[in-house]
């Protein structure tokens, strides 16, 4: 009887311990894990799993789109105050995320719903890697898929979703299908959605892709270009180039080419992948500089010098002009952003590069590397009309930007420094600007500009 009682006591103790363990697990889940999951859901409200069903994607995006026209739900943002008050920690400010993004892109067309990191890459990132920043619409999904497989590195992409389109939900499903199509897509690509009824806000989309890039350096690339050489590894292995990138005063040009016969530009597998093959194709008349019929867009790259350059040479662009729009690698934080007033074709990318140049950034050409355009049909009627409109905006933009930087650099006393060289060389080409410059100097005579 004593043995039996002892045995029963031990069983009772085991049951009590098991009950206590289960109770602790339940209490922890109820009081901690579940609220944390709810907090994360409220903070991000984004699908992060690549196994999310297509129907769920449509449902979530439908909810996000409807929120665009409702009073936003306030989510606290945390601002780092340690720099000004080292003894204090960050403090929360009840500012809605949508409101902050609306202000960040206040020069864009509104209303617009921006959804950062709708999909977030799962791969590990090195801060000093180079993220390709680009923008796509639904008709360029196959080209984007090829870019991801070829680059094998971080990509930040802005995808426009027209929320007034009859194909709205099928587009959402297509985005999910695209993202789950290959492991590399989920490994390397951050997707940011722009949901509105305004097509071709290219500079806004460029800025969104750049803003949410998660590395220190970015490459601003149009989606129709194929990456042909491994410039990324070459740049990261070159100490001099990386030092210049870190300083933020240099941008590195990857020269652009296209096939003379459009049909030959549809097969990326046949594109050259080294400079020797490229030069052979150029000599045979198959390839030429990109948009050779409109030389001002790319001739500042100085293609004759590029063809003759020895291996490893990096040379400076010395004949810049305002229509130059190369594809560049540069520092994400510091250089100016693309002006968002441009809507549609014409002048948008040139405006980005123009302000970068005026800010004091020098362009350098990587003579071992290149990209090749993948030919496709253009909306010629739309392009022609929008270019007329944007030509006026670009002319005004150049004058405004020149005056703004001239006045700012003059007041800082750096107009005659290396950083102010580009302003003096480029802005004095504008009609009437030398007279305006003299008036600026007379009103605040800190230094006298040369060449005006």
Q: Tally the helices.
A: 15
Sheet with the most strands: spatial strand order: 3-6-5-4-7-13-9-14-12
**Secondary-structure element series:** HHEEHEEHEHHEHEEHHEEHEHEEHEEHHH
Strand content: 15-25%
Write down the overall geometry.
globular
Low-confidence spans: pLDDT under 50, at least 5 residues? 26-55, 66-74
Note the gap between the termini: 112 Å
Taking Cα atoms only, what radius of gyration do you get, to the nearest Å? 27 Å
Largest sheet: 9 strands, mixed
Mean pLDDT: 83
Tell how many strands the DSSP assignment holds: 15
Helical percent range? 40-55%
Question: What would you note in describing this structure?
Answer:
The protein has 452 residues and is of the alpha/beta class. It has helices at residues 2-44, 54-67, 97-104, 141-151, 168-179, 183-188, 202-211, 231-236, 239-247, 275-283, 303-308, 348-358, 380-412, 421-427, 433-443, and strands spanning 77-79, 91-93, 113-119, 130-136, 155-162, 189-196, 217-220, 225-227, 250-253, 256-259, 287-289, 314-316, 328-331, 362-366, 371-373. Strand 4 (130-136), helix 4 and strand 5 form a beta-alpha-beta unit. Helix 2 packs across helix 5 (168-179), helix 12 runs parallel beside helix 13 (380-412) and helix 13 packs across helix 14 (421-427). The model is unreliable at 26-55 and 66-74 (pLDDT under 50).
């Amino acid at each position: 009887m004593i043995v039996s009682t002892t045995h029963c006591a031990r069983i009772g103790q085991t049951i009590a311990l098991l009950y206590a363990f289960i109770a602790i697990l339940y209490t922890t889940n109820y009081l901690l894990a579940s609220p944390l999951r709810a907090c994360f859901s409220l903070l991000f409200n984004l699908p992060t799993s690549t196994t999310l069903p297509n129907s769920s994607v449509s449902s979530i995006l439908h909810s996000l789109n409807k929120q665009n026209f409702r009073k936003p739900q306030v989510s606290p943002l945390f601002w780092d105050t340690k720099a000004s008050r080292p003894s204090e920690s960050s403090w929360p400010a009840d500012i809605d995320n949508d409101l902050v993004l609306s202000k960040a892109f206040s020069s864009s067309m509104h209303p617009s719903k921006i959804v950062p990191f709708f999909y977030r890459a799962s791969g590990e990132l090195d801060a000093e890697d180079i993220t390709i920043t680009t923008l796509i619409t639904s008709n360029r999904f196959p080209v984007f898929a090829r870019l991801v497989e070829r680059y094998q590195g971080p990509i930040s992409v802005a995808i426009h979703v027209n929320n007034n389109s009859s194909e709205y939900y099928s587009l959402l499903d297509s985005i999910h299908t695209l993202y789950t199509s290959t492991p590399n897509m989920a490994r390397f690509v951050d997707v940011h959605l722009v949901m509105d009824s305004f097509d071709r806000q290219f500079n806004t989309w460029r800025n969104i892709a750049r803003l949410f890039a998660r590395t220190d350096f970015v490459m601003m690339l149009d989606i129709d270009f194929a990456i042909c050489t491994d410039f990324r590894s070459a740049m990261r292995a070159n100490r001099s180039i990386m030092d210049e990138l870190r300083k933020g005063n240099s941008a590195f040009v990857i020269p652009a080419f296209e096939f003379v016969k459009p049909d030959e530009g549809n097969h990326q597998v046949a594109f050259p992948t080294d400079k020797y093959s490229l030069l052979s194709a150029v000599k045979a008349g198959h390839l030429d500089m990109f948009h050779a019929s409109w030389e001002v867009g790319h001739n500042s790259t100085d293609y004759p010098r590029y063809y003759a350059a020895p291996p490893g040479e990096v040379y400076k662009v010395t004949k810049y002009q305002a229509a130059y729009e190369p594809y560049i690698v540069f520092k994400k934080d510091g250089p100016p952003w693309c002006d968002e007033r441009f809507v549609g074709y014409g002048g948008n990318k040139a405006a980005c590069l123009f302000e970068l140049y005026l800010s004091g950034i020098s362009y350098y050409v990587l003579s071992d590397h290149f990209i090749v355009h993948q030919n496709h049909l253009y909306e010629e009627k739309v392009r022609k009309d929008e270019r007329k409109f944007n030509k006026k905006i670009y002319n005004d933009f150049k004058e405004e930007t020149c005056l703004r930087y001239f006045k700012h650099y003059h007041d800082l006393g750096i107009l005659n420094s290396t950083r102010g060289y580009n302003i003096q060389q480029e802005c004095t080409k504008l009609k009437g600007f030398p007279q305006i410059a003299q008036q600026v100097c007379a009103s605040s005579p800190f230094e006298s500009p040369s060449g005006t």
